[in-house]
Amino acid sequence: xxxxVFIMLIxxxxxxxxxxxSKVLTSDLGVAPIFVVWxxxxxxxxILLPFTWRAGLAVWxxxxxxxxxxLIAGGISCITLALQKAPLADVFGAFFIGPMVSFVLSVWFxxxxxxxxxxxxxxxxxxxxxxxxxxGLDASAGLGWAVLAGCFYGSFLTASRWxxxxxxxxxxxxxxxxxxxxxxxPFVIGGFPEITPQIATLIAMSAVGSMLGNMLMLxxxxxxxxxxxxxxxxxxxxxxxxxxxxxxxxxxGVYVIAGMALIIAAGSASALxxxxxxxxxxx
Length: 283
Fold this sequence. Notes:
By secondary structure, this protein is an all-alpha fold. The protein has helices at residues 2-28, 33-56, 63-85, 88-95, 98-108, 116-133, 141-163, 169-188, 197-223, 226-229, 235-248, 254-276.
């Protein structure tokens, strides 16, 4: 268990690190967010293609694969825009509406059965997101993009579960990378930045950090049950706070901290409940 947790914590540090590189590119160096998105998927796809291309040959005929690719492309595009406009920790906090969206869609679309206490915990987590975003008060365009990114990502998670029974893992992985490259290429033609050594390094950090984080997370899930590791997903929030403070000098305000605490508490309680009662019943 300790080894799986250690790998999970490293994974949850790599993902915010990749997004930190994206924020530097877009907010400090003036690189267009859509180019950062395109390059992120392009590099990840090039790394994965030699290992997974066979698995992806037949699945492209399934329209659901393209739909799923569009969802992840939309999610990464929105969070990259959010990072350009808002502090790192605030963006990650608002982005965590994603698991709640996935919960609602899984109940509605996949007909999964849930208990009343799970619904209550989702509402608690949603209250945490509202505290972070504070719509109508201190809301910013950046946090609006972060919420939209979370909605895309939650839909992507549900679509992944929808396809899990018919598409192999290798097919899901390669289409998740190559599909967004195809979909975003028309938007980057003629808009390539001057690739300096600094920009090239940060582009590589953005792509590799995200890809390594997700691959290590899958490795950890193969070593231990997902329900036991689920609470450690929220270590991303702590990593985002630390990276935002060290690199950008940003510290979250009291509302953001309170919102994060609610999200972590609700998510951890939900994971604990799932691990104790793996077979759910109706409310």
